[in-house]
Amino acid sequence: MGRSRRTIPEELLLLALDPTTGTTAQPQSLDLGLAGAQLVELALAGRIAPDGDRIAVVSPRPTGDPTLDCALELLRRRGAPVRAVHWIGGPRLGLRQTYLSHLERCGMVHAVAGQMCGVLPTTRYQATETAISREIRARLDSAIRTGVPPDPRTAALAALAHAVGLGKHLYPGNEGRSSRSRLRDLIRHDPMGGLVAHAVMDVQNGAVAQPRRPAPAGRQAAPGARAVVEPARGVPVQPHRGSMARVVAH
Hints:
The protein is mostly helical. The protein has helices spanning 8-16, 27-44, 66-78, 84-88, 95-105, 130-146, 152-163, 167-170, 177-185, 191-204; strands at residues 48-51, 54-57, 82-83, 109-116, 120-127.
């Protein structure tokens, strides 16, 4: 896989990068979207394929992209096809930063050091190759405006942009409502992009629990007791109502 073509994770991140603030829109859901975008890119490269709601490795041959190849190797080690929601909902520590650092090395963004509240060090990223960001945006705008079925890469990018909530970032306000609706509709033009985008939204909605397991023979649940559903391995557990959770940005 040549590096002359930008990958879908890179394009999704450039779409999410705010040119004014240097921050990324929808950072928490964007992490899920980047994991999903890796699956779409691997599928387009012929390394994986959908198997129902699961992802199967069809060729373990490296793509030449270190980050994609790491994901491909992890999928290969699973042995059996893995459900898309379980893969996307698994821990992806530092994935956004990995891609930001890659874009910086490629000269597409540059890091700007700063401070929050005059104390905490922060890093913001400004796009340097603005023509690239404009070209990515123009592809989405064209697909939305013309209604012509987009190519698979653009369709998958649109599906992921909708899934992570970038619609309001790209097409804000009441005047952008129809564009956001058409962005959502583009999800149907790429089966793999649609599968991954729905998996991203399912993870955000918490709809990734495994079916209830039958109680072992001889053990009955107490009357009125609540059944416990164990979360899938690698899927973040949602805190109970009323509990407090600390969110750490990566």
